[in-house]
Amino acid sequence: MENYLECGGKKVKDVSLQELRDRLAEFARVRGWDQYHSPRNLLLALVGEVGELSEIFQWKGEVEKGLPNWSHDDKEHLEEELSDVLLYLVQLAHVCGLDLGQAALTKILKNAQKYPVRNPTD
């Protein structure tokens, strides 16, 4: 059974990293792109996409949460660039043989130990 979330007043599918990984692997396989998907090449592509993402914010100054002053087109452009970054990151983890989801959860736990909740009176 598929999971759906409510997001901005519409139902969206809750997609797992595994599903993204599998779809990306199939996408690349049927196009014969696997030969180009070395860790180095994927990292360089990821860095390029992060640059494109940065350009969106470059001259905007501080931006309010939820992007209330952004046009639909600007938000759509942001979604596309964020998606590019995510997809390259998922592919990079996959070709390196890493479980990105588990690594992220482990990192959250490490950060919780490194930065414990402080009592306001401390």
From TrEMBL:
<dbReference type="Pfam" id="PF12643">
    <property type="entry name" value="MazG-like"/>
</dbReference>
<protein>
    <recommendedName>
        <fullName>dCTP pyrophosphatase 1</fullName>
        <ecNumber>3.6.1.12</ecNumber>
    </recommendedName>
</protein>
<dbReference type="GO" id="GO:0047840">
    <property type="term" value="F:dCTP diphosphatase activity"/>
</dbReference>
<keyword id="KW-0479">Metal-binding</keyword>
<keyword id="KW-0963">Cytoplasm</keyword>
<dbReference type="InterPro" id="IPR025984">
    <property type="entry name" value="DCTPP"/>
</dbReference>
<comment type="subunit">
    <text>Homotetramer.</text>
</comment>
<dbReference type="GO" id="GO:0005829">
    <property type="term" value="C:cytosol"/>
</dbReference>
<keyword id="KW-0460">Magnesium</keyword>
<dbReference type="GO" id="GO:0042262">
    <property type="term" value="P:DNA protection"/>
</dbReference>
<comment type="function">
    <text>Hydrolyzes deoxynucleoside triphosphates (dNTPs) to the corresponding nucleoside monophosphates. Has a strong preference for dCTP and its analogs including 5-iodo-dCTP and 5-methyl-dCTP for which it may even have a higher efficiency. May protect DNA or RNA against the incorporation of these genotoxic nucleotide analogs through their catabolism.</text>
</comment>
<dbReference type="GO" id="GO:0000287">
    <property type="term" value="F:magnesium ion binding"/>
</dbReference>
<dbReference type="GO" id="GO:0006253">
    <property type="term" value="P:dCTP catabolic process"/>
</dbReference>
<keyword id="KW-0378">Hydrolase</keyword>
